[in-house]
Amino acid sequence: MKAHSPHSGPHQPAFRRQEPDARRLALIEACARVLARLGAAGASVRAIAVEAGVSPGLVSHYFSGIEALVAATYAHVEDKVNEAIDEAVNAAGQNPRARLDAFVMASFAPAIADPQLLATWIAFWSLVTARPAIAAQHDEQYSGSRARLEALLGDCGVPAERQRRDAIAVSALVDGLWLELCLSPGCFSAEEAGAIARRFLDTLI
């Protein structure tokens, strides 16, 4: 899920002729790579500056501190995942069950069931209990995802009084399958994960 920024030549400034938004994005992508490789404990301004090929001062120019950069990176990674899921749902057409299946199955696609993306998420999760801003982002992300799932379940005829709990159950199943698929991809396939999830959806609808 991460995008790689171009490498500059050995004697060229890393951000020559780049627009400010591109510079900010390159720092966010560098932060994501550092988080995946070193974890939250290794994500310092210096480490991210080295990864991006810039001075620590340039990082400080765009972000007030490491916490602000990590928060921006969390939001960026979340947006990329949501974009991939939205694309899958939109490609499924107008059939409610097809759209629900697409929402669930998107988590098992290679772009999301990716060990490096998992490493980045683990770094974020490790900060949830320690940093209120990250905890708030996590709660907002989970609530938004669950609300989308509730709406898809409702479109499939699940009664309103069941939608919240059913969405929590589906989310927990999908998250567990996604986690195991990232950690141990040889144990079962994305197709098997999808079949398990669809069978569970059959019991709800």
From TrEMBL:
PROSITE patterns: HTH_TETR_2. Residues 44-63 bind DNA. Signal peptide: none annotated. It comes from the Bacteria. GO terms for molecular function: DNA-binding transcription factor activity; transcription cis-regulatory region binding. It holds the Pfam family TetR_C_6. The keyword Membrane does not apply. The keyword Transmembrane helix does not apply. Keywords: DNA-binding, Repressor, Transcription, Transcription regulation. Residues 21-81 form the HTH tetR-type domain. InterPro entries: BetI_C (IPR039538), Homeodomain-like_sf (IPR009057), HTH-type_TetR-like_transc_reg (IPR050109), HTH_TetR (IPR001647), Tet_transcr_reg_TetR-rel_C_sf (IPR036271). This is TetR family transcriptional regulator.
